[in-house]
Amino acid sequence: MLRESATFDRATIADIQRAAETGIYDIRGGGAKRRVPHFDDLLFLGASMSRYPLEGYRERCDTDVVLGDRNASYPLHLSTPVTIAGMSFGALSGRAKEALGRGASEVGTSTTTGDGGMTPEERGQSKHLVYQYLPSRYGMNPDHLRMADAIEIVLGQGAKPGGGGMLLGQKITERVAGMRTLPMGVDQRSACRHPDWTGPDDLEIKIRELREITDWEKPVYVKIGASRTYYDVKLAAKAGADVIVLDGMQGGTAATQDVFIEHVGIPTLAALPQAVQALQEEGLHRHVQLVVSGGIRNGADLAKCMALGADAVAIGTAALIALGDNAPHLDEEYRKLGSAAGFYDDWQAGRDPAGITTQDPELADRLDPVVGGRRLANFIRVMTMEAQVIARACGKAHLHSLEPEDLVALSIEAAAMARVPLAGTSWIPGQPL
Amino acid sequence: MAALSTPLDVHEPNSTTEAVVDLSVSDVRQLNAALHAPDVAEKVPSWRVTHPDGRHSIAVGLDAEVSVEIDGHVGYYCAGMNKSATVTVHGNAGVGVAENMMSGTVRVRGNASQSAGATAHGGLLVVEGSAAARCGISMKGVDIVVGGDVGHMSAFMGQAGRLVVCGDAGDALGDSLYEARIYVQGSVKSLGADCIEKEMRAEHLAELAELLAAAGMSADPAGFRRYGSARQLYNFHVDNASAY
User: Fold this and answer.
1) Domains of chain B in sequence order
2) Which of A22, A145, A195 sits opposite B119 (nearest CB)?
3) What is the mean pLDDT of chain A?
4) From CA A319, how far away is CA A330, in angstroms rounded?
């Protein structure tokens, strides 16, 4: 009888063999694939005798959210708390960025630039556009800063807290190279630290500079990868952030070492309550808004984030899937690349059959930005409606009225991380009974 | 949003074209808002700022052909993201002077702290004294001329533009350099990864002479050495792993 080793399973053996053959670590796209405690490990307690539900088809359950009203004269007012996470032109095609803008605008939410600057396609199609301010400052331009609706200072992302970006040479086309002031075809390296500030005291000055440049009009977000979340959120909020974007380890990346994705950072579920606690202790919860990303897939995840104290969520991987990533009809083409529909993660390679994570003009032309935008809008609408279904069942007239008391956990780990009781008990691990 | 407590206190003591803003009575936010006025270049092309006293973010985000003279020392990010304007600091500058500048001229009569000209895309930054660590970090097209020395990791990941150092350079000059060009008259303590000395040809002497002249420096181009990228790390190869 063949017996597979739990320690040296087939995937591990393949990794060792690949490393020995190539001499280089594995780089891929996407987020952590390992099983970690997640929102699936939580359940809602619907209303019955002790709680009063709302009538699903008659009583309103609002979904709007205001982001960045702490200091900015023009905060964002979004119709749904589902936003689009930062993804770069370069990592994605121009048409994919346009599709994200179209979809987001159709449902009244925001989309976000990425490393490499702002494209006309994206600005033109995005009603609410968040402009990322990254360590590399590739394509960083004060005109774009002024054209943006909000500014997001990126300290890190969930897939690689502590790491810089990379965009491999095959995706550095003439246009991408021009926007980033790089030679064509180089492996673009992005710094992991900002070039002109270090630490929270400097961040406070940097935030103030960005406000001065934009005449205090734009909300300033700070994005962090989930690791020492409690302290990072406190420091960012005290430095003056209007919005904290918290990205857990399931959050996707366009290109990062597999070892980094799988072994650095903490799950979104573990990070979110820490962030809420930090904001509450500073008296800033709901004043500094919290946007959570990293493995958000459906309305249940959205509702659970809201219940745990988030103000909004951001989707990246799910948005790309909505556009057409990993579509079943492309299975044959994925197999030619050594993958399969449902498994494709070589977003770094630039050969995406769906035309999303590529700069190849022929492949990129496969994505119709109008159709893609409509698919994304459909998906966000479904997510929002699903969350409303749950919120009404819990008797809540706004998604933001969901609360931890509405939740229980299916596992001890999830109960400890989410700080809600294990289902059927009043036990929250780590807290006195 | 907090309302401004007082209107900007602008004095026009000697002429109709120079506005004087005293930061001991006005605040930086008021100054920047006034400098961002759409018609500022036509109405008030010349500005003088007194008592800066190390305040941060003075004259940031300018987007007009105005002249701003600052009488004293400034804090972080003075003239950050400058476009078109000419900003002169009659004193020392804190971290990130002229960071991400797009065009125009920024001149520091004294010394500059870390990250002078960081990520700047264009224009001319002149530091008449010395600049601390990371001068020209991730520079993307700016020209920087330093009359004195520069600290360690200067021009780190420099992508485009020219850095001219009339004095000495610290450790790891030009580390992980892309296409920025570096000229140093004095000694270089060490070169960073993938940065090498290159031949100084006639076209380099000519562009260096232009840069020195533009900066008002009297140094002889013939006394400089040129440094640039060896371009060995542009695409990752396992044999270069020890270089990182």
Assistant:
1) 16-220 (2.160.20.60)
2) A195
3) 95
4) 18
